[in-house]
Write a structure and sequence with these properties.
Helices cover 43% and strands 14% of the residues. The protein is α/β, with parallel strands linked by helices. The longest helix is centred in the middle third of the chain and has 15 residues. Bound molecules: pyridoxal-5'-phosphate. The site of pyridoxal-5'-phosphate has 18 residues, from helix 9 and helix 13.
Length: 357
């Protein structure tokens, strides 16, 4: 038997809604690294095992690929010729790529000027039909829901249940690798599809005895876009973490259910905390994620510091997207780095090195 990895549907097909005759639309997504942090626990002086699930290594650079391989596979199986989504960027990149793979059309609604450069570049290159709107993600989402009743398009936002099915496999991978569920699982929360999906995955593994327990689920939002902390929908959400710049989460009830059943909590982190965590991961661990992704670590670090997450815990933080998605925010955070320019001579290079040692 071949051991070539051909994507998460093939790997977990017994636990996904596919059959022998389903054509899998795949780009080899999933199977992402679970990296144990080595320097940050030492730096904060706490005895904790922190792992990051580095979803930025999916084919289009975010966890959205897990959901999109399933959603597009099912759309094609059901005879759909076109998919549509509203997006803060990563969903549009994933939808565009998987539509190309399947040979169908992708329409994406994005908020004008509020999408990170890398995500825009991807969506343009994959050749999706881009519809920019003078409005935010929430406005785009409500338009998409309406238009799907008037045109032959399949919605591939996380309100599509197949997205959740695909994304639950991240929890399977973590349990398969650690031998059981962690004590705590920390996630950035926007629409709350992903926290819903992880909870479903952990629950299914626990029910069938693959895992002995389920983790406490900790969902972190950006302070300017924090409906779960406000306890109600938020209009005009604002944050540097554009992937979670969402005020009207679509998986509201399901996410509250995950929080309650797991004994977990929601909390908000400021943009400054989010960016500090992003930089810390890069500069102390060599892991570069996008701003929204670092919200999980920002939250975990504060709750470890306060003792809410006790020492001795095993913690997994999902890093939802790749740092290369948003080069502008990364470069603007490194204004203090002054690359030197010198003559192209051995002496000049040697001097720079010796001055730094
Ligand atoms: C989509 C996205 C999120 C939010 O996930 P939800 O399922 O909407 O809660 C977080 N980070 C990144 C990088 C994303 O692309």
């Amino acid at each position: 038997m071949s051991t070539r990895y051909t994507g998460l549907i093939e790997k977990y097909k017994d636990r996904l809604p596919v059959s022998e005759s389903t054509r899998f639309i795949s780009l080899g997504e999933g199977n992402t690294p679970l990296i144990q942090l080595q320097n940050i626990p030492r730096l904060i002086g706490k005895d904790v095992d922190i792992y990051v699930k580095y979803e930025g290594l999916n084919p289009t650079g975010s966890f959205k690929d897990r959901g999109m391989t399933m959603a597009v596979t099912k759309a094609v199986e059901e005879g759909s010729q076109a998919i549509i989504c509203a997006s803060t960027g990563n969903t549009s990149a994933a939808a565009a790529a998987y539509a190309v793979r399947a040979g169908i059309k992708a329409f994406v609604l994005i908020p004008e000027g509020k999408i990170a450069l890398g995500k825009l570049a991807q969506t343009l290159m994959y050749g999706a039909e881009i519809i920019q709107i003078n409005g935010n993600f929430d406005a785009g989402m409500s338009l998409v829901k309406e238009v799907a009743d008037h045109a032959p398009v399949t919605i591939v936002n996380s309100i599509n249940p197949f997205r959740i099915e695909g994304q639950k496999t991240a929890a399977f991978e973590i349990v398969d690798e650690l031998g059981d569920a962690p004590d705590f699982h920390c996630l950035p929360v926007g629409n709350a599809g992903n926290i819903t999906a992880y909870w479903k995955g952990y629950s299914e593994y626990a029910e069938s005895g693959v895992a002995n327990k389920r983790p406490v689920m900790c969902g972190y939002q950006a302070a300017g876009a924090a409906p779960f902390i406000a306890g109600k929908m938020v209009d005009n959400p604002e944050t540097v973490a554009t992937a979670i710049r969402i005020g009207h989460p679509q998986s509201w009830d399901k996410a509250w259910n995950a929080e309650k059943e797991s004994g977990g909590w929601f909390d908000a982190k400021t943009d400054a905390q989010i960016l500090a965590a992003q930089k810390m991961l890069s500069q102390f661990e060599g892991v570069f994620c996008e701003p929204a992704s670092a919200t999980s670590l920002a939250g975990a670090l504060e709750d470890i510091g306060s003792g809410k997450i006790p020492e001795g815990s095993k913690i997994v933080c999902t890093l939802t997207g790749n740092g290369l998605k948003d080069p502008d925010t990364a470069i603007s955070q490194c204004k203090d780095a002054h690359p030197v320019t010198i003559e192209a001579t051995l002496d000049a290079v040697k001097k720079v090195i010796l001055d730094q040692m």
